[in-house]
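pinging the channel bc i need a second pair of eyes. not urgent but kinda urgent?? the chain im working w is below, pasted from the shared doc
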Amino acid sequence: MAVLAVLLTGCGIRPTQVPTDFGPAPSRVPCALSGPDIATQSSHGVPVQVFLLCSEQLVTVDRSVRIADGTAESARRALVAQALLDELAEAPSTPEEQAGYTTDVRGGMTVSGPREGDPEDTLRLSTPPQDLTPTALGQIVCTFSDSAAARDDGSVVLGGPAPPSSRSYECTPEVRAAPGDTTPKSTAVRSS
């Protein structure tokens, strides 16, 4: 008992009779980026936010994309979506990686606009949405929903390369909090 008392005194922890709850242990991964890196990225184009994975949650990161001036509104949605998708697929920068950010979106995926019979705000992915991991789909839906690629209500209409009907997806707090466990909520969209 005396040895235990000496050990506890030596490490600065005083014994107590009352149970204590100091919450979860602090995370070693801060999920926070330094200001200079953000300023450097946003100075090279239109500032946007993408959702990356950090501490098993979706967290926004500032990036920038270039969209050609004078692009017609009908083509702009698909161009913005492709630029955002490319940002999601890009490996996190060194500061982002050190802060614990990762991405589940793989490179090589493309986005196109609506096909004949699709609603005008449809985005067609080269990989069917149902074939993506819940985390990758959550990253795409949440990133698109917070951009010019979204519908007026913030939802995103996604389809795959083949004609099956597209679906309207929502970025919910549940998806942001646990993207690996929660698939984005979706509803079928009628063809026009």
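so Residues 17 and 162 are 66 Å apart (CA to CA). and Strands lie at 46-54, 57-65, 111-112, 122-125, 156-159, 167-169, 186-188. — does that match what u expected or am i reading it wrong
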